[in-house]
């Protein structure tokens, strides 16, 4: 993987046309400041929260507003959330979606092909079990010939466990176009929560060509 100083001006042109992303920054308290002002009690599992005061109708409705309607009998005693990324769909207007089940291991060979200069967005299906997952975020880094050409991070939010998978759509992007943009890319995608627990870390390769292959 090359550094910024190793970039070839011709390769720089490969990233032309991709969506630019801007993230606002704000000052945050340090860990010491947070610890001095915040004292947390022992963690209580979601199942305990649901069972507590379950006969109080007003409290039950209030909890449903906060975490959604959750079946207490389907929630495990285990306090750790379980998040599974089930599938990835590549959505582009005017053509069928490319549906890719998430494999247990890194895909071997070419995983998919994108058309140059096309608008598209990614759509994931996500299953959450056991407990609430807080601050789930998606990061993606792309390289071409060993040089990083794109990097993005999207905050997805907080999800409570439920029987049906969530559908999460990423912002729309545009693939680069031109002779320098076409070819094979490598990428790494991750899903991580606020506690830095990683639920998916996948490496794969894809192509950008003059047209879709299927």
Automatic annotation (TrEMBL):
> What Pfam families does its record include?
Rho_GDI
Where does the record place it? Cytoplasm
The question of whether Cell membrane is a record keyword is answered with no
Give the keywords, sorted. Cytoplasm
Entries under InterPro entries matching the protein: Ig_E-set, Rho_GDI, RhoGDI_dom_sf
Segments of skewed composition (Basic and acidic residues): 1-19, 45-57
Going by the entry's taxonomy, the superkingdom of the source organism is recorded as Eukaryota
Keyword Cytoplasm set for record: yes
Q: Name one GO cellular component term.
A: cytoplasm
Q: Which residue ranges does the record annotate as region Disordered?
A: 1-57
Q: Which family does it belong to?
A: Belongs to the Rho GDI family.
**Name assigned to this protein:** Rab GDP dissociation inhibitor alpha
Species whose genome carries this gene: Salvia divinorum (Maria pastora)
Q: What is the lineage of its organism?
A: Eukaryota, Viridiplantae, Streptophyta, Embryophyta, Tracheophyta
């Amino acid at each position: 993987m090359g550094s910024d100083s190793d970039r070839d001006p011709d390769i720089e042109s490969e990233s032309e046309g991709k969506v630019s992303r801007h993230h606002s920054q704000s000052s945050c308290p340090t860990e010491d400041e947070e610890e001095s002002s915040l004292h947390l009690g022992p963690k209580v599992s979601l199942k305990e929260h649901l069972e507590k005061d379950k006969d109080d109708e007003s409290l039950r409705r209030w909890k449903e507003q906060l975490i959604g309607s959750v079946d207490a009998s389907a929630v495990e005693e285990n306090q750790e959330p379980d998040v599974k990324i089930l599938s990835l769909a590549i959505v582009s207007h005017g053509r069928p979606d490319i549906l890719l089940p998430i494999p247990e291991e890194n895909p071997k060979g070419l995983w998919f092909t994108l058309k140059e200069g096309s608008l598209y967005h990614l759509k994931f299906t996500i299953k959450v079990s056991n407990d609430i997952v807080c601050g789930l975020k998606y990061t993606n880094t792309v390289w071409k010939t060993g040089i990083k050409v794109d990097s993005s991070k999207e905050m997805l939010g907080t999800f409570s466990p439920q029987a049906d998978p969530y559908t999460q759509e990423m912002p729309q992007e545009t693939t680069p176009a031109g002779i320098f943009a076409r070819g094979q890319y490598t990428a790494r995608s991750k899903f991580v929560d606020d506690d830095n627990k990683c639920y998916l870390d996948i490496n794969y390769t894809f192509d950008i060509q003059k047209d879709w292959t299927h």
